[in-house]
Specification:
It holds the Pfam family UPF0270. This protein has 85 residues and is α+β, with helices and mostly antiparallel strands. Helix content is 54%, strand content 16%. The longest helix has 17 residues, at 13-29. Mean pLDDT is 83; it is low at 79-85.
Length: 85
Amino acid sequence: MLVPYDALLSLPQATLQAMIKEYLLSQLEDGSFSDVDEQQLTQATERCKLALKKGELVVEYSEDDESIAIRQREHISAKAYDQSA
């Protein structure tokens, strides 16, 4: 199930920051980023927030394993789109 962007705005700021940081760290692990300093992390966080706002990135909640994660929209199954409507 996709979490609407407006719902993300009602989350505590620390919760959203933690989700973004986890997403960005997953990008580090797969090699999308390398050698990131604090300034680059701050910039990447802002880009991630903007991508969430634009819908390029989405937050997906999995009821099966009760997890939540940021994903690229094109990597989400059509089933998730149907549930978010």
